[in-house]
User: Which sequence fits this backbone?
């Protein structure tokens, strides 16, 4: 049995035939060979599942050389866009020819996630109740680490970006920060999402689950994900009729620090929105706006949307937004257009506290 056979369906067919063989052996009284064969299949599936999980989590730590080359190529493309007013064919050709493996990176994660899903669900019925519980706890602990990493990436992004400069000003180092952060965020989110799916599947199959540690772990995952629906729903599934978990989280910020940060971020968001509005008004009044330069403006809107979204993380308090913050976020959404929706996953603030345009 090979992990690469999972996507073709060959592995499932092979395991199914072995299961039929085990049943035939039991029917003919050959209990010992049946048990040995069943144990061998289970052991091999466990090994393959572990291999797939290791490969999957490995995608959240890119090889620095490959990551740097990819980021440099993307940054070159962006800088050429701005320097040449939208004419950037050479950089596009160069980007297209660089690092085939990294270009397919999101697809590699999806393929590996699918392999892990198949293997995990083939393996699970062969494990004891205790082994399955240990497995789901392991996935939850791994998810917590990934979601904490996601939060740290977003917080660092909020510290590293400039918000008071003119929005149309493009800085090479900042573009590199954006590309690197978003690449790593997407990887972490995809892998954590795969783990969430497997935990959810296990909870559906084990509705009477009484593992005390699981609700606590999923509560911390929900906090690290800061209101993102999949983790909130998982926590509710794990809690069921039990009293909800309160406190005991490492993700809370002191009230005074939170309020101070919120005030500072509000002023930065207001400055960013007002400057972008003024810039776009000037652009709209320019009669010789070319089709090429419209690409530049669209990219500026995308970068503005990311910055506004990062600032929005710091404006929600207990799932509520002040009226003035809500107004600013609505204006940001109108300015950015489709780009505002494309950065939805960058937000770590409560969904209840984010106004959508």
Assistant:
């Amino acid at each position: 049995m090979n992990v690469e056979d999972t996507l073709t369906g060959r592995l499932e067919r092979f395991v199914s035939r072995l299961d039929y063989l085990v049943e035939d052996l039991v029917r003919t009284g050959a209990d010992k060979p049946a048990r040995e064969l069943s144990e061998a299949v289970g052991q091999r599936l466990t090994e393959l599942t572990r291999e797939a999980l290791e490969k999957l989590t490995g995608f959240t730590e890119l090889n620095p050389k490959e990551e740097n080359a990819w980021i440099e190529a993307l940054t070159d493309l962006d800088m050429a866009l701005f320097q040449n007013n939208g004419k950037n064919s050479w950089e596009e050709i160069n980007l297209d020819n660089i690092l085939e493996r990294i270009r397919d990176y999101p697809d590699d994660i999806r393929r590996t996630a699918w392999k892990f899903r198949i293997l995990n669900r083939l393996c699970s019925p062969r494990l004891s109740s205790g082994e399955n519980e240990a497995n789901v706890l392991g996935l939850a602990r791994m998810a917590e680490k990934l979601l904490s990493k996601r939060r740290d990436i977003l917080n660092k992004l909020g510290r590293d970006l400039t918000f008071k400069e003119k929005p149309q000003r493009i800085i090479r180092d900042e573009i590199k920060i954006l590309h690197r952060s978003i690449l790593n965020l997407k990887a972490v989110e995809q892998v954590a999402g795969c783990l969430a799916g497997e935990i959810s599947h296990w909870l559906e199959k084990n509705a009477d689950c009484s593992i005390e540690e699981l609700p606590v772990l999923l509560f911390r995952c929900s906090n690290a994900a800061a209101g993102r629906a999949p983790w909130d729903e998982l926590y509710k599934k794990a809690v069921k009729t039990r009293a909800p978990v309160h406190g005991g989280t490492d993700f809370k910020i002191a009230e005074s620090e939170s309020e101070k940060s919120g005030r500072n971020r509000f002023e930065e968001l207001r400055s960013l929105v007002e400057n972008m509005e003024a810039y776009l008004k000037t652009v709209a009044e320019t009669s010789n706006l070319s089709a090429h330069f419209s690409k530049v403006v669209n990219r500026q809107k995308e970068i503005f949307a990311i910055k506004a979204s990062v600032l929005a993380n710091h404006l929600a308090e207990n799932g509520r937004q002040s009226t003035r913050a809500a107004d600013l976020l609505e204006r940001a959404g109108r300015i950015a257009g489709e780009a505002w929706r494309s950065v939805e996953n960058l937000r770590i603030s409560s969904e209840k506290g984010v106004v959508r345009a």
User: Anything to note?
Assistant: The chain is about 70% helix and 0% strand.
